[in-house]
């Protein structure tokens, strides 16, 4: 009896040490694919949009068929929760076999994980076979995420740009605002018809950064870290703006929509007149899915709107690193990227460079109808850079203290 | 083996609750070695008390607890008093009973879809009566005072308390009292409140306490209907628990202790309300007034009871309609087009959560039923019914706020290396399922005519044979109903599933709430619809199986 127990115990130890010695090498892709087969990848990704959840479901099916990888979408309402989970595991000494294999991430959460050493890498991203198609040259946000170098620790997945939507059946196009200041005037003329998701919702916080980017005296200041001492003076233009805007918001700013899909619902109901999202094709996608009427159109500010890239990253203690690598690579494939850009599916813009693609793959993108409500790349206006992550943290904190408590 | 059953039952209930409480209280005072908290301090409380809007968050939870209970108890008392024994009463009773099976979250979504400015009620009257071509900018759902939040709780607690009161009623000579008071010239309602109600209330008191505990610490209903600037305390606890800054765990634990205090305060306030109500009743009684003209009170009680049923059923209907709707813009009463595309899309993805919901629910229910039956059989053997303190253990998980001990339990499990496993989830669900199974089954079990068993024993059958051949088959209907109740409780669990499942084990309930209060109404409709369908299926099984089993046993048919 004791002997059997001992043998079992020894076998357990052996297999555990084998697993850790069995490091994977992203450079040897064949072995990565071999190891990935049979693995289960827990992908923690925001789960608030049905079209995105559908797309992730499709990715799961493809991965199972093509690589024998089982993908489980762990739906988050805030990516910070996944960061907290990895951090808890690290604090508890769980350096292997973590619960999360892949995270949909960018900006402050990436910066936080990178700073605390919670990420796998660096350098695995450039070794993905599909990396050769990525538009590194023309899209600086692919290698610099919210001013933080990505160092090959997160793999690009899609492009984002702040775009506004309105219903052309109700709202005159000539009347639309062309800047944050004009938006304020518009809200005063149309009380109760504009709002933004309650921070720390990602899109809500992004709206605040857009306003700050337009109104701060020296925009270059946003690209550097900010500390608590200088923040109040620098962010004053933003909070002055919000103080003036809030009385004219939907529900007089005593309640806020939960996220951008909620805003789309309110736009469909006629409660809101101007909404926005971080995806230029959001409206076309919503029309295709019967969520919005086909009279919805898009606009942006001629002075530019925030623009960034979103990524996937692998925690340092992920249990299925090979499976996560295969997933990240599949997400970069022309097949997956083209499907993602289809407004009938999701409409999220690709990170690939068209000129780098083989002809038949380029044809997949050229065949896409981007939809009536999607602006062409030329109409999207200039791209404003994302501020350093420290800004977002401070803005959210200050927002909660000022407006998160009823008065 | 039977001898161990009561001990197992108490262990299932008490170990997670007390263990969880310890896991909450220690970090609240700064002790959690895994996160570097080695010394006791009051720092976590200092941090939590410094949170913006904390007082208001606490007040919302406190007021929700007391007001929800007060309104629900009042509606139930007036309705039972004004209408018991009438045909209207029986009709309402059969209308309200199924509401018990509707999970809180589904009822809350249904209510939101009914009463939002762009909701079904507004559409019914727009634009012809209201003149609204577009929804008015009224803050109804998520209002800062939490009125809609409390309404969402009331529509669920009225059926619960009504059924508890009905279960207690047979032990009170209501009809005789009513004859007596009416012969003395008292109005129907007053006669009931002066004679029968105190006796009934005494029996449902623990259930009322459970309502207060639930309302003051509810997370799912508060997320859907409650205020957001700031949110009620239990909602903020979940946010702190998930904060990427690990030091927030100490603060969250201190907040959970604060939550215990808020619930305790709500219960203390309720004890004062009880005293006040008793004093007022005694005073009115002593004045000798007869309150004969109680027609308006009776009508109001009927309307309010009917309204709670109408809101939930209407909400279910609207949820179902949204789940198959194409574009459906305000102020159209019906969708512009119908489409099954929502269902087609969601079906493949709902399979996983559905399987988890069903398997966890079945496992928790079957295990709980086994323990309960064994305990009751042991009780029959020894001839001792449980003392008061066993009732206390039964109600323990219902009285201690979930947020108060599930957090601690989660910390224990995480730092003890137990991840989000199916078995852990079943065990945690059992903590909440077992009390309800026991409460539903104990009355019919104890009321069983023991002469059947005496005859069996006289014919030389052993105790086991009697149990399996006589008692269990004859009580199969009661057992199945108790299990259906337990299954419904398991399906409705939100916070324990969210925390213990940690996103890996998701049920239709956690999915429904995660998909958002205001997001895609089709998807919410589908999930909430499935969420309420499951308990109904459970009750359907409980009704159909005995009917099939006893199809040639006339005396076993429902009268």
From TrEMBL, chain B:
This is ABC transporter permease subunit. Belongs to the binding-protein-dependent transport system permease family. The chain crosses the membrane at residues 7-34, 54-80, 101-125, 145-169, 206-230, 250-273, 300-330, 350-377, 389-413, 419-441, 474-495, 524-550. It is found in: Cell membrane. GO terms for biological process: transmembrane transport. It is a multi-pass membrane protein. Pfam families: BPD_transp_1 (PF00528). Keywords: Cell membrane, Membrane, Transmembrane, Transmembrane helix, Transport. PROSITE patterns: ABC_TM1 (PS50928). Residues 354-545 form the ABC transmembrane type-1 domain. GO terms for cellular component: plasma membrane. InterPro entries: MetI-like, MetI-like_sf. Its main location: membrane.
């Amino acid at each position: 009896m004791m002997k059997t127990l001992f043998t079992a115990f020894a076998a357990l130890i052996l297999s555990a040490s084998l697993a850790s010695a069995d490091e994977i090498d992203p450079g040897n892709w064949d072995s990565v694919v071999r190891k990935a087969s049979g693995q289960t990848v827990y992908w923690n990704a925001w789960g608030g949009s049905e079209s995105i959840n559908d797309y992730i479901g499709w990715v799961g099916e493809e991965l199972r068929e093509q690589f024998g990888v089982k993908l489980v979408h762990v739906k988050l309402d805030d990516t910070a929760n996944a960061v907290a989970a990895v951090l808890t595991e690290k604090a508890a000494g769980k350096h292997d076999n973590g619960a999360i294999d892949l995270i949909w991430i960018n900006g402050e959460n990436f910066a936080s994980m990178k700073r605390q050493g919670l990420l796998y890498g660096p350098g695995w991203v450039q070794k993905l076979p599909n990396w050769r198609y990525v538009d590194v040259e023309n899209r600086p946000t692919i290698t610099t995420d919210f001013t933080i170098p990505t160092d090959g620790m997160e793999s690009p997945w899609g492009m984002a740009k702040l775009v506004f939507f309105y219903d052309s059946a109700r709202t005159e196009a000539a009347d639309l605002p062309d800047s944050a200041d004009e938006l304020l005037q518009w809200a005063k003329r149309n009380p109760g018809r504009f709002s933004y998701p309650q921070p720390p919702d990602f899109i809500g916080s992004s709206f605040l950064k857009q306003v700050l980017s337009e109104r701060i005296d020296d925009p270059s200041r946003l690209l550097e870290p900010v500390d608590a001492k200088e923040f109040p003076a620098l962010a004053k233009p933003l909070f002055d703006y919000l103080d003036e805007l809030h009385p004219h918001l939907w529900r007089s700013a005593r309640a806020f929509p939960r996220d951008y899909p909620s805003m789309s619902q309110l736009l469909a109901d006629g409660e809101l007149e101007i909404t926005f999202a971080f995806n230029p094709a959001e409206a076309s996608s919503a029309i295709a899915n019967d969520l919005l009427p086909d009279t919805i159109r898009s606009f942006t500010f001629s002075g530019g709107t925030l623009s960034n890239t979103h990524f996937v990253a692998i925690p340092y203690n992920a249990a299925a690193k090979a499976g996560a690598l295969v997933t990240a690579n599949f997400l970069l494939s022309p097949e997956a990227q083209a499907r993602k850009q289809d407004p009938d599916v999701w409409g999220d813009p690709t990170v690939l460079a068209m000129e780098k693609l083989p002809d038949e793959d380029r044809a997949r993108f050229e065949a896409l109808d981007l939809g009536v409500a999607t602006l062409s790349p030329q109409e999207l206006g200039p791209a404003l850079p994302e501020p350093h992550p420290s800004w977002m943290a401070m803005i959210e904190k200050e927002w909660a203290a000022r407006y998160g408590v009823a008065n | 083996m039977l001898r161990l059953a009561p001990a197992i039952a108490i262990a299932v209930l008490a170990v997670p609750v007390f263990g969880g409480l310890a896991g909450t209280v220690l970090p609240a005072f700064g002790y959690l070695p895994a996160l570097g908290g080695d010394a006791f301090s009051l720092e976590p409380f200092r941090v939590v008390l410094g949170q913006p809007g904390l007082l208001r968050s606490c007040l919302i939870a406190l007021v929700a607890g007391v007001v929800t209970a007060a309104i629900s108890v009042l509606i139930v008392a007036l309705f039972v008093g004004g209408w018991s024994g009438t045909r209207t009463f029986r009709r309402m009773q059969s209308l309200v009973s199924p509401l018990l099976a509707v999970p809180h979250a589904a009822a809350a979504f249904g209510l939101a879809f009914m009463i939002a400015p762009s909701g079904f009620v507004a559409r019914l009257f727009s634009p012809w009566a209201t003149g609204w071509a577009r929804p008015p900018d009224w803050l109804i759902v998520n209002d800062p005072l939490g009125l809609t939040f409390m309404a969402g709780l009331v529509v669920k607690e009225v059926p619960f308390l009504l059924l508890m009161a009905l279960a207690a009623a047979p032990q009170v000579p209501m009809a005789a009292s009513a004859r007596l008071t009416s012969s003395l010239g008292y109005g129907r309602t007053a006669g009931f409140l002066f004679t029968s109600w105190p006796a009934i209330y005494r029996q449902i008191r623990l259930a009322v306490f459970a309502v207060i505990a639930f309302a003051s610490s509810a997370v799912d209903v508060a997320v859907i209907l409650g205020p957001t600037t700031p949110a009620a305390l239990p909602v903020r606890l979940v946010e702190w628990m998930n904060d990427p800054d690990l030091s927030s765990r100490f603060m969250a634990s201190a907040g959970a202790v604060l939550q215990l205090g808020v619930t305790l305060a709500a219960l203390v306030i309720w004890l004062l309300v009880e005293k006040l109500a008793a004093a007022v009743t005694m005073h009115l009684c002593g004045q000798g007034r007869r309150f004969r003209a109680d027609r308006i009170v009776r009508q109001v009680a009927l309307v309010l009871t009917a309204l709670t049923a109408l809101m939930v059923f209407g909400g279910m209907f609207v949820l179902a309609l949204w789940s198959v709707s194409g574009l459906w813009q305000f102020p159209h009463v019906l969708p512009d087009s119908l489409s099954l595309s929502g269902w087609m899309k969601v079906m493949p993805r709902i399979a996983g959560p559905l399987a988890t919901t069903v398997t966890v629910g079945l496992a928790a229910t079957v295990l709980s039923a086994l323990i309960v039956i064994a305990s009751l059989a042991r009780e029959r053997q020894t001839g001792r019914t449980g003392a008061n303190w066993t009732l206390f253990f039964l109600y323990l998980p219902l009285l201690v706020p979930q947020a108060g001990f599930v957090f601690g339990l989660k910390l224990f499990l995480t730092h003890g290396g137990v991840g989000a496993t199916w078995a852990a989830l079943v065990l945690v669900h059992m903590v909440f399922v077992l009390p309800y199974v026991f409460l539903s089954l104990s009355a019919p079990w104890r009321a069983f005519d023991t002469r059947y068993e005496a005859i069996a024993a006289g014919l030389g059958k052993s105790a086991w044979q009697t149990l399996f051949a006589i008692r269990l088959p004859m009580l199969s209907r009661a057992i199945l109903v108790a299990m259906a109740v337990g299954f419904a409780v398991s399906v409705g669990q939100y916070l324990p599933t969210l925390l213990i499942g940690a996103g890996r084990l998701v049920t239709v309930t956690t999915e429904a709430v995660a998909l958002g209060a205001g997001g895609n109404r089709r998807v919410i409709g589908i999930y909430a619809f499935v969420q309420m369908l499951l308990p109904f299926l459970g009750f359907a099984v409980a009704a159909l199986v005995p009917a099939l089993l006893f199809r040639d046993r006339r005396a076993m048919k429902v009268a």
